[in-house]
Amino acid sequence: MLFGFYVNYHNGIPPYYSHTFHYNHVFVFSAITIQLVNPYVKYYN
Question: Distance between CA atoms of 5 and 19, rounded to whole angstroms?
Fold first, then answer.
């Protein structure tokens, strides 16, 4: 998170947008992970 903040600050993007982008990215990544893992969990249970 600090690294992303540093990169965005270096590129001149305000910190607010960097944090918003970071949280959106984590949310999308977790949603995709759940979609991928769900079939395996249902299959093995």
Answer: 7
For 1-45, where are the E strands, in sequence order? none
Predicted pLDDT at 38: 79
Range of the domain at 10: 2-44
As a whole-number percent, the residues of the chain with pLDDT over 90 amount to 0
Q: What is the pLDDT of residue 3?
A: 47
Return the closest-CA partner of residue 4 out of 13, 42, 41, 38: 13
- How large is the greatest C-alpha to C-alpha distance in the chain, in angstroms? 49
pTM here is: 0.37
Q: Distance between CA 24 and CA 30 in Å, rounded? A: 10
Instruction: Please tell me the total count of domains within the chain.
Output: 1
